[in-house]
Design goal:
homodimer; seven-stranded antiparallel beta sheet; 15 helices; 34% helix
């Protein structure tokens, strides 16, 4: 290892490598808390240096864990004492936004928020958005195929990326950096690196697609009394708003009751007896007319008997207050301590029955268990946050079995947007067949035969 | 071979296999004209039968060319005398549309138009659309990642597919048939089979995503006097219409002049002296208000000096007349006989310069060469149709070199939506690096080590 470190130092320069307490004082998970065990951290400044580092690692059989913003939630960046950490923190280069082509070329270490700001300055939008935007990097977003708040309108990270440059395990640079939407010239290689959590290659650069910056934003919270109406409302609003629906976040009564109803953390915008609450948002191109259209659509939904109650945000402050309810992670953690959280997808028609089954299963084992349900229902993705008063690994495992077995029965998936990493690897078989997992291993073997890239993650 | 055919017959029944003139009277290319040379055509009825056929082929080293609707344009379905054709013509099953989840499960042999009709009957839209909709199959659309008329609004086939079932070369069934939008459970295996033209597996079933059926449609043809205004108009309209722009088809003056100006095939809706014409369309959720909004946006574009002239369709007939200009393939072929056609992508800012370079290169060799340019500019995709009065292979090759070398210089791609197949294989290197092509071969080797699936196509 020492010889290898000296080679890295000669390639990257003294500031390109960290060892000793410079490593152990860093973190490899979220929330950050120090204790990275890796042998060393290398910090290349560009694709060519990443390639040289990997070529040496490949020859030496040195395992590599790539680090971006370290905001992942499934242990995908965790490194053991034998691993080398490859940090992209010095790869924050960004070319000027191409306003005409509506694209931007970035290095993988650029923070998501930096791209937001550059796009907005050019009068454009980079639609991928999530809470960790200040730290999360584009490379990490790509490697995990991040989801977030705008999927219903714009899709996941996969759909925001036109080109990717990645380095394979042996140092080969695969530069698929075309800046066009349509490209059917053979296999779409960038798909290999999107969502594969650094196990098939290290993403070093990307061409991102930008969109028009919305000129209007309308937001409402509505209450409904049964689940079939929630599904019907989604279709109705999506149709009435002509495809400009940009959020359809559903809060089950369990959520609203626990987080909002007592009035301590939020002023309740609606009564707390309804079965479901939906936070609706639409973005468009004309401020005044879009507001009128949004109001008309809600009025029609009311007349059709879909809505029990509704409040439309009349100011930015009111809109922020409504979103603060949906995003009150602190409130959830405080009221459901210690929390166990899930991020799952399943077909919309099955959701309410599924949530019921999980609740029954939980309370059979832990009569005092409490659970809230909410999420991006428009994308088929919901989150469960629950507590059984324990984080004992055996108990957590029993909870996971209840949640994932019911999900497997309904054909759902155990990770909608967070990925598999280390933490969900044991449950992959609830969403994937043995043949699918075998094919994943075939790909891994073909691209990384020495298993040096993020070994042990996903599969 | 005879023993193998007997095995197929016993698995598939007598109607499951065709030989002799039943094969040679069929076609394997477009336009159809008979002469399929394959040893036999097998016609399985479902995934299990496809799996059994491929298992036997794999054991025997028998090469297989899969056939869908045979509307591809790059020779991807061509079969030699040693090949077996696997036709999905008996796999036309379709489950009921799930109106709540907005999905439908189909077998790969279902025609695109059949999906359109089923979706529309359920009040929904399957947005993939192209001229060959009556014959083209979903399996073929997936295998070629088909593009078409709605990409600017909804993306290519890749973005319409939630789940895929495919059979690998050795008969293994990979069933990734989740009906959810968000699924980050390991490698997204379906991406392997989308756009790989039947070389990595045979797609047998899919879960398709449906969208709200638009309630309004507004169409206009506008004229502009320089290319920078075309690019500016795209951004302006996309923004002003709040993301509901559903077509932005540009006709260079070369097209309008040749096909429209003489008034013989079309009544010219605008004068013929403008440099560019754009066919604009927007779909939305409110008929009356969307029409007003569309008019306001065009008016504003006019006031900003972007437009030189404009006509808005006032009826379905007028809309159809405008689209008939854009879609007048017969007119193009008649006026540019014999035609040579191209389907390319490149960055929007480079397009006009590129077209100019190609024209200069062509007329230097063939002073009487004529070329028209048009296409899905909003997607970065244009078509060139030209004639040099010859289809001599050496001449065609020279033309291809002119078109693709200029494209390579500008970082464009040689196939936007048609694929590579056999016909563009020699030019793949103009759009892909040696490292990319080597990685494609690595994937092919890993998934189909005996090279039995559509051998010789793409790479």
């Amino acid at each position: 290892m020492d010889a290898l470190i000296e080679q890295f130092r000669s390639i990257l320069g003294p500031s390109g490598i960290l060892t000793g307490t410079d490593v152990s004082s860093r973190s490899d998970s979220w929330p950050p808390m120090g204790g990275c065990q890796a042998r060393a951290i290398v910090r290349p400044s560009g694709t060519a240096e990443v390639s040289e580092v990997l070529r040496l690692c490949h020859a030496a059989g040195q395992t590599v864990v790539t680090h971006g913003g370290l905001t992942g939630l499934v242990g995908g960046a965790r490194a053991g004492p034998d691993d080398l950490v490859l940090s992209l923190e010095r790869m924050r280069g960004m070319e000027a936004v191409d306003r005409v082509n509506r694209t931007v070329v970035v290095q993988a270490g650029v923070a998501l928020q930096t791209v937001h700001e550059a796009a907005e300055e050019a009068g454009l939008l980079f639609p991928l958005d999530l809470g960790a935007r200040g730290s999360a990097t584009i490379g990490g977003n790509i490697s995990t195929n991040a989801g977030g708040n705008s999927v219903i309108r714009y899709g996941m990270t996969r759909e925001q990326v036109l080109g990717v440059e990645a380095v394979l395990a042996d140092g080969t640079v695969i530069s698929s950096m075309k800046d066009v939407i349509k490209n059917n010239t053979g296999y779409d290689l960038k798909q290999l690196f999107i969502g594969s959590e650094g196990t098939l290659g290290v993403v070093t650069r990307a061409v991102l697609r930008l969109r028009p910056l919305p000129r209007s934003r309308n937001t409402a919270l509505v209450a409904l009394d049964d689940f079939s109406k929630v599904a019907e409302l989604l279709q109705f609003m999506d149709s009435a708003l002509g495809g400009t629906l940009s959020a359809f976040e559903v809060l089950w009564n369990s959520f609203y009751h626990l987080i909002v109803a007592d009035g301590k953390r939020h002023t309740p915008p609606l009564g707390s007896t309804h079965a479901f609450y939906v936070l609706l948002e639409s973005t468009g191109g004309e401020e005044e007319n879009d507001t009128l259209r949004f109001g008309r659509a809600l009025e029609e939904a009311f007349e059709q008997g879909l809505l029990a109650d509704a409040v439309i945000a009349q100011s930015t402050q009111q809109r922020n207050d409504l979103w603060a309810i949906r995003d009150d992670v602190e409130g959830m953690v405080k009221k459901l301590y210690p929390p166990i959280t899930f991020d799952i997808s399943l077909g919309i028609p099955l959701m309410d029955q599924y949530v019921h089954e999980v609740h029954v299963g939980l309370t059979a084992l832990w009569p005092s268990a409490r659970m809230i349900t909410f999420g991006h229902l428009g994308d088929g993705n919901i989150h469960l946050v629950l507590t059984i008063g324990s984080l004992d690994p055996n108990d957590v495992h029993s909870v996971e079995e209840i949640v994932y077995q019911a999900l497997g029965r309904h054909g759902g998936v155990i990770s909608a947007e967070h990925g598999i990493g280390l933490d969900k690897r044991a449950y992959l078989g609830h969403s994937r067949s043995p043949e699918e997992i075998a094919l994943m291993k075939t790909l891994k073997q073909a691209l990384d035969p020495k298993n040096i890239l993020n070994p042990g993650k996903i599969i």
